[in-house]
Amino acid sequence: MPGSVWRTSFGQDRAGLIGHTLDPDKLEKKIPENMSRFDMQLSMLEPMFDQKDSPWIFSTSVPSLADLAMYYQLWWGVEVAKGHFINNLTAGGTEDTDTEGAEAVFNAQRYPGVFTWYRTMQRYLDNLPSVENKDPAFGEVLQQIKKSPSLGRKSLLLPTPRSSHTELDRKCGLVEGSLVSVAPDDTGMNDPTVGTLVALSPEEVVIKPQALDKPAEIEVRVHFPRLGLTPSPRQQDPPSTRATLPPSDFGRLQDIIVRPESSSTDDDDSLTTQLWSAEVSDDDLMYLRIMAQSELVRAIGSRIRVLREEVAKLERLMPKEGGQTMWRKDTDRVRGDICALVLQRWGVEKVS
C-alpha cells in the first residue's frame, strides 16, 4: 500500500485497530519485503491453475466462495498497490496515483495461470447485473425489521455436533445473562463489542449489545463465530470519565471543531484555551484529533470542488475554437465578460 495512505486519518484508525503506532516511513521501506512475500504466495498458487478443466479454483460452473475470497486479496494487491481508489479509502486524505504497484511480480509472463484466472474473474464480476436497491427509506426498512418474527431459543444458534459444554463455559465465566465482551484474537482486541450473553455453542456466541447513550431504534442480537474471536466475562464498567467532567466540556470541543469560523462570536473562548483547560481522556483527545483532521479534509475537498466549478465557469466565458481563445467582436459582450470575471474573482477572494 502506498506510504501516503498511512499518513492520513486512515492510518490512525488502523493503528487503533492493531493496537500500536504505525510509522508511515518504516512501512514504505518495507514495500520490497512485502512484494517478495507476495511473490512467494503467487508461486504457491500457480500450480492450482495448471491444466484445469474449469476456469475457477474448483470445478464449478460459476465462481465459488474460494474464488471470491482470493480475488479480493489479489484485487487489493493490484489496484490499491498502484494507488487506485486511495482517495476514497482515506476519505480524501490523499490523491489517487497510478504507479507500477505489484506488476513486477504479478503479470501474465511470471504467473500465467493465476493472472489468467484473475482477468477471467474480473470480467465475470464486471458483467454481473447490478442488484443494488437504493429505493427504500431507512424508516421503511426499520418497520420491516420490526415486523419480522423473533427467533425462538432453539433457533438462535446454528446446528453443531454437540451443544455447549456448560461446566467448561461456567469456569470461563461465560454464563447466559452475564455481561461479556467479544473481540478478535489478532487485531481490534482493544475495541470489543460488549453485551449480555444470550446463547452459546462450541462454535458461536450470541449477545444483546450494551445500550449506548442514544436509545436503540430496534433491539438486536449479534452473532459471532468463536473461531477467531474470544468471548470473555466483563465487569460492569465504572462510571464514565466523561460523565464526571463539566457537562459541556467534551461537547464544547466538538462544537468548536465542526463550527465554521464565520459562526464564532466574541463571547467564545479561543480554541487553544478550551483545549488546554479541558480535562479529557487520551481516547477522547485522539477522537477529537481525528475529527479535526476529517473536518479539514472535508473543507479542502469542498473548496477544491468550488474552485473546479469556478474554472469551468471561466472556461465557458472564454469561448474557444481549435483550442485557441476567441476574442469577441461585440464590445458590449466584452464589457460583460470583464464585469463577470472581476465579480467572480472578488467572490473567490472573499471565500479564500
TrEMBL record:
Composition bias (Polar residues) maps to 232-243
Annotated ranges, domain DUF7962: 9-79
Question: What InterPro entries is this protein classified in?
Answer: DUF7962, Glutathione-S-Trfase_C_sf
Chain spans, region Disordered: 227-249
| Gene3D superfamilies, per the entry | 1.20.1050.10, 3.40.30.110
Domain of life the protein comes from: Eukaryota
Mind telling me what this protein is named?
A: DUF7962 domain-containing protein
Q: Which organism is it from?
A: Friedmanniomyces endolithicus
Q: What is the lineage of its organism?
A: Eukaryota, Fungi, Dikarya, Ascomycota, Pezizomycotina
